[in-house]
UniProtKB/TrEMBL annotation:
Biological source species: Saccharomyces cerevisiae (strain YJM789)
Pfam families: Sec1
SUPFAM superfamilies for the chain: Sec1/munc18-like (SM) proteins
InterPro entries found in the cross-reference section: Sec-1-like_dom1, Sec-1-like_dom3a, Sec1-like, Sec1-like_dom2, Sec1-like_sf
Protein's UniProt name: t-SNARE-interacting protein
Domain of life: Eukaryota
One GO BP: vesicle-mediated transport
Family, per entry: Belongs to the STXBP/unc-18/SEC1 family.
Transmembrane segments annotated in the record for this chain: none
């Protein structure tokens, strides 16, 4: 489906729903029209309602939730003049009301009560990121009554917002090392039960934010099943306890309307955690740090050479991906070469617009125009009105130009395109020969990439890799003193993998439209020599050797499962047989057993959750599948315990490999 078609769809995304819930809280939990995007909501409210200026008090977790979807200007529009961390020394503002948005902990409650005692604010609107336990609610009530100032407490709300949304349909519970904890022999049963309960709580928050109680389907025999059972019980209790007046959460029994929550264990597909993707967003996440919509790029020292391990970063440069970043919205899901051409096209368009303005106004540079000028010329006034928008557009283009320049530098330095290439055909002799050639490239700054590609080949080769090839690879890493504990775990995993791309059948995602990328000459005039958005020109030849590799549009294991559950009529028998055995829970059935024998039915929307780490590759593949259903587009939200980089996940399984090894030695 073309980008324009996707962008024009009026579906409310998970991010929209979270923004709406946060804005409602910032406007003191008044009912708002929350069916529009963020700008419309805030401008509309700002224009229609009397703004009450307020202070916002956050903790570290709630700061992460808000900063991922709103900016300071958005808070200002909602009447927030000051925002502070709850543990900071805060100056008293006795004439100003305060909104607290914090985690439900004893420590936070004690601080709020102390603020109340000292009359730090005029009114207190207390909001917890998730459900406040009964014992803490009683503690809060008791402490407030002792102060004799309970009239200042205007509201106490559970907000169910304890999850992070970084893309329209992507969320994370930010529970790190979940895979390690759940699979480490040293982890106690109590620790596993506690972690599964935390994950169920996080999913409970996400489900309530979507305002719909879904059918739950979950893979059996692992943590996903435990979490599904715990979540089913929580949702069932919620349905029973919800007043009949709150019908919005309880409406709709039709599966197409209700949707499905699919909970899967990470073992469904290990390879996707290590794959080298050619998608722009996936590459940014893999190569640089992309966290809460901020890209952190290391600035390398000037030491050059084959061995870049000696070149230590002197500093880092951060770029914010704004929620309304037009280029990211239109290009993050595209192959890197296509997105690279589009950023140059965007720059050329900007230059044309700037030239038109300078021609109309007679100035030599648009920066010479004064937005506050009282010039009477209608033409100049119209141009000046366009300046803020044009400046913002230029800043966005500059950001992506700099990101592309840094990506190209890494691509050339580490030969990353070669890893992507070999991973496309894991079973062939030619691929194995090519991989051994890559090992001889003389580079030691890409050892992690080499290990990742080997893991992908090992896990996705249908017939298995020859022993002598495996031995050659192992010897290479030992010669370079590189830790291969991860391989011990991967070898073991391959033996008992219940699900992999070998037991699920892939399908093509080619939609037959004309939006497929056409090969052309990749020149990107001078992008490689770019600094801070200033083109230096004449160096396009440096990157012309980087091939225009196009990812094959096909489903990966997680998408095959989602396809079988959401669209059984068009799924393969092989995939249906796999998902037929999944747990089926209907939390709306409040009498008798709410667990039912699975039945095949179609759904239009789903929330897909992976226990043990997720990645942008799966997110993008699911979105591509959802939008490839031209006549019946699906809505798929994707989340995980944490969105984990290949390096982070490699560290988790390295520790598992070492742990299993020490257990065997004992």
């Amino acid at each position: 489906m073309a980008v324009e078609e996707i962008a024009s769809r009026k579906d409310i995304s998970l991010r929209d729903m979270q923004i709406s819930a946060i804005l409602k809280m910032l406007f003191l939990n008044k009912d708002l029209n929350n069916n529009d995007n963020i700008t419309t909501i805030t401008d509309d409210i700002f224009n229609q309602q009397e703004i009450i200026w307020k202070v916002l008090i956050l903790d570290i977790k709630s700061t992460a939730t808000i900063s991922s979807v709103l900016r300071v200007n958005d808070l200002l529009k909602a009447g927030i003049t000051v925002h502070s961390l709850i543990k900071q020394d805060r100056s008293p503002l006795p004439d100003v009301p305060a909104i607290y948005f914090v985690s439900p902990t004893k420590e936070n409650i004690d601080i709020i009560v102390n603020d109340l005692k000292s009359d730090k604010y005029s009114e207190f609107y207390i909001n917890f990121t998730s459900s406040l336990p009964r014992n803490l609610l009683e503690d809060l009530a008791q402490q407030v009554s002792i102060t004799g100032k309970s009239d200042k407490i205007k509201q106490v709300y559970d907000q169910y917002l304890d999850f992070i949304v970084t893309e329209p349909e992507l969320f994370s519970l930010e529970i790190s090392n979940a895979y390690l904890t759940l699979n480490d022999p040293k982890t106690t049963e109590e620790e596993i039960t506690g972690l599964c309960a935390n994950i169920a709580d996080g999913l409970f928050n996400t489900v309530l934010t979507t305002n719909s109680i879904p059918i739950i389907r979950a893979a059996k025999g692992g943590p996903a099943e435990i979490i599904a059972e715990k979540l089913g019980t929580k949702l069932r209790d919620f349905v029973i306890n919800t007043n009949s007046s709150s019908t919005s959460t309880l409406q709709g029994n039709d599966s197409l309307e209700r949707g499905v929550l699919i909970i899967l264990d990470r073992n469904i597909d290990f390879a996707s955690m290590f794959s080298h993707s050619w998608i722009y967003q996936c590459m940014v996440f893999d190569i640089f740090k992309l966290s809460r919509n901020t890209v952190t790029i290391p600035l390398e020292s000037k030491e050059n050479g084959t061995d870049n391990t000696t070149a230590k970063p002197l500093a880092t440069k951060k770029y914010d991906i704004e929620p309304n970043d037009f280029f990211w919205m239109e290009n993050s899901h595209l192959p890197f070469p296509e997105a690279a051409e589009n950023v140059e096209a965007a720059l050329n368009t900007y230059k044309e617009e700037a030239a038109e303005i300078t021609r109309k106004t007679g100035v030599t540079n648009i920066s010479d125009l004064d937005p506050n000028s009282n010039n009477d010329t209608v033409q100049i006034q119209e141009v000046v009105k366009k300046l803020p928008e044009l400046t913002a557009k230029k800043n966005t283009i500059d950001t992506h130009m700099n990101i592309f320049a840094a990506l190209l530098s890494q691509l050339e330095s580490k030969s990353l395109d070669t890893f992507f290439e070999v991973e496309q055909d894991p079973g062939s002799t030619k691929t194995r020969s090519r991989f051994l050639d890559i090992l001889k490239d003389g580079k030691t700054n890409n050892l992690e990439d080499k290990l990742r590609s080997f893991i992908v080949l090992y896990l996705t080769s249908t017939t298995g890799l020859p022993k002598d090839f495996v031995q050659n690879v192992e010897n290479y890493f030992k010669e370079n003193d590189y830790d291969i504990n991860a391989l011990k775990y991967v070898y073991k995993l391959r033996e008992f993998m219940q699900l992999s791309n070998m037991s699920l059948q892939n399908k093509s995602l080619e939609d037959g439209s004309d939006s497929a990328f056409k090969p052309s000459n990749l020149t990107l005039s001078g992008i490689y020599g770019l600094t801070e958005g200033k083109l230096q020109g004449g160096v396009g030849s440096l990157i012309s050797g980087i091939k225009k590799l196009l990812p094959e549009k096909k489903t990966i294991p997680i998408t095959n499962v989602v396809d079988a559950i959401m669209d059984p009529l068009n799924s393969s028998q092989k995939n249906l047989e796999t998902t037929d055995s999944y747990l089926y829970i209907d939390p709306k059935i409040t009498r008798g057993s709410h667990t039912r024998k699975p039945k095949r039915q179609s759904y239009n929307k789903s929330l897909v959750f992976v226990v043990g780490g997720g990645n942008y590759l799966e997110y993008q593949n699911l979105q591509e599948w959802a939008h490839s259903q031209l006549h019946n587009p699906k809505k798929v939200m994707y989340g995980s315990t944490a969105i984990t980089t290949p390096a982070e996940f490699l560290n988790e399984i390295s520790r598992l490999g070492a742990s299993n090894s020490s257990n065997n030695d004992a």
